[in-house]
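Input (structure):
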C-alpha cells in the first residue's frame, strides 16, 4: 500500500514540475493528476484497501475560451478567403 502511494505521489510531483517548467510556454495547458483507489480485499466482514493508483492526467483549460478562439479563427479565415 505504501509503495502505491509513493508512486502516485511521485507521478503527481512530475506533473507539477512539468507545469512549472512550461509556465511561460505559449499555448501550454496546465495538467492535473487524478488518483483513484485500487480494489480492496475482503477478509470475512472486513475490507482491506490495497492502495492508490494514478487514474488520469487531465488537461486544465477553459473550454469556453477555446471554443471562442476556434470560432473567431474560423470566421477570420472565412473573411480572408
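Output (sequence):
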Amino acid at each position: 500500500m505504501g509503495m502505491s502511494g509513493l508512486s502516485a505521489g511521485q507521478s503527481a510531483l512530475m506533473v507539477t514540475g512539468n507545469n512549472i517548467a512550461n509556465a511561460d510556454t505559449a499555448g501550454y495547458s496546465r495538467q492535473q493528476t487524478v488518483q483513484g483507489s485500487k480494489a480492496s480485499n475482503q477478509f470475512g466482514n472486513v475490507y482491506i484497501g490495497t492502495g492508490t493508483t494514478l487514474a488520469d492526467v487531465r488537461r486544465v483549460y477553459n473550454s469556453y475560451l477555446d471554443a471562442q478562439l476556434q470560432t473567431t479563427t474560423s470566421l477570420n479565415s472565412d473573411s480572408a478567403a
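Notes: The first strand starts at residue 30 and ends at 37. Residues 52 and 70 are 38 Å apart (CA to CA).
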